[in-house]
Specification:
The protein is an alpha/beta fold and 328 residues long. It contains eight helices and 14 strands. Strands 3-4-5-6-7-8-9 form a seven-stranded mixed β-sheet. It has a five-stranded mixed β-sheet with strand order 10-11-12-13-14. A two-stranded antiparallel ribbon has the order 1-2. A hairpin with a 2-residue loop joins β3 and β4. Bound molecules: zinc ion.
Amino acid sequence: MDSKEKEPIDLDRRTFMKISAATAVGFASIGLVASIGTVSAAVENGEIMLNELDKPRTFAGRPQGVPPGMPEQLFDDTALIPTKVFDNLYCVGSRSVVAWVLTTSEGIIIIDSMWDNRDGKLIIDGIKQLGLKPADIKKIILTHGHGDHYGGAQYIKDKTNAEILLGKTDIGFMKAVSVGANGPRSPKPSVVSPMSNGDKITLGDTSVTVIDTPGHTPGCMSLIFPVKQNGKSYTAAQWGGTGAPMELKDKLTYRKSIDYFEKQTQAAQATVKINAHLFVDGGYAKLDAARTLKPGIANPWVIGEEGFAADYDGLRKMIDGAIEKQQG
Ligand SMILES: [Zn+2]
């Protein structure tokens, strides 16, 4: 068993425990005001025990007040099997949200950090299960300033001293907003490096290009980076913000960002599509397929340039419909 379970409670964990014992979390930004319910904390000799971090991971139940359009899977903490998807890209996470683990010649870049400390531990444990070393984590790139993406970052940083990076506009957004998806479930990282449009976040032989795609949040970033498998190189792209924002002006910005990112991924000839919320595009099945990939069978994460074109058309259709509904 993991010897960390016997370590003393540190301040971050204690704070997390106190907060999560009786708080509600909602998602104002994606139209949801929800109570996730209470998390019971074991108390012994006046101390809250650490086993909350290892609590069984299951579907938390659909909280009251959730709008009908909100997917059930967003509330499902059931862990996914840590999976190698490309030679240098791994997926660790839950049915709700995942972190992508990108290996380089000089260590590991993590993309997003899930909801909370417990998820941060899930990511570190998953990296170990994959035969990688958590101590090699050097950078944590956060696609945007919502709690389901930044909440595990401080926990991972405390264990590894990795640098946390977030779009410069979303650093202010994350600090300013503490409701909805940014509720108390998700601790805010204390020291964050700002990213700007076109920055290349480089570690060893690998660079992740970050592209400004505001709308979902004001400083949402989408990513382009190289992956490889069986000696073949591909360009992967990750659209940073899943889901339409509530405000009309933000929807219009989101619409522009789709067009802008499409140009960037076309120029980069991206053919591999990565997503933080696997339930959006059949990711659970793709993950299963990736674990049992036979030689000669195409990797399901490779959707091709035509796949991307269809995907952007779908995104535009979704946002246009939402805009029309709001304007009408
Ligand atoms: Zn979000």
